[in-house]
Amino acid sequence: MVTVRQERPAEAAAREALLDVAYGPARFTKTSVRLREGRLPELALVASEGRRIIATVRLWQVLAGPGRPALLLGPLAVHPSCRKRGIGSTLVQHALREAARRRHGAVLLVGDAPYYGRFGFSSEKTGALWLPGPYERHRLLACELKPGALDGARGLISASGRPEQRPDLATLVAGLVRNDNTLTTRADELGSGRVSPARSRASSDALCARTIESPRWPLASLASAPRAA
Fold it and tell me: How is domain 2-159 classified at the CATH fold level?
């Protein structure tokens, strides 16, 4: 049985793995990523079958031109083994209903009109809007949840959602220094004979495990810090 529900925090890794299968590394090159990176989604839904995540869709807060709030839908992904079952359509319908319930006025996306047209998306009111990077203009679509929400919409589509919290460089370096100092202290104690080799190995193993598990944002991730849209 397939269930559509809110994504749980512990399911982030499963969702990312699904997106890798569905889109591959090319998903990180899309212009719409600039409107999502470093932001928290307004809505995150998954379709699950048993304990397995088989589909995902998220919506993000944006501005459709100055002072005009909207949502950006995407990415929508269904596991290849579960396609042709209407799961993607069900997710989109749930997402639009929830967005309307939360009183949002419009939803934007970059996608194929023949597929998304069935949900009310078209390019009718996106002609004067543009994204911060390359994209196919005819694939920029919108669906009004409130009639007239995009009347006269014009300008750059920019990110407006809540920023994702990341530790700064000083915090990361301080954590590494603390770990290094602890290792140095253990080595000094072992050399002086105050700690037995067996106890030292156990402590070092535990410390290494904490070192691997504790930093949620490795230094390499700073290279992809969010840019202003």
Answer: Aminopeptidase (3.40.630)
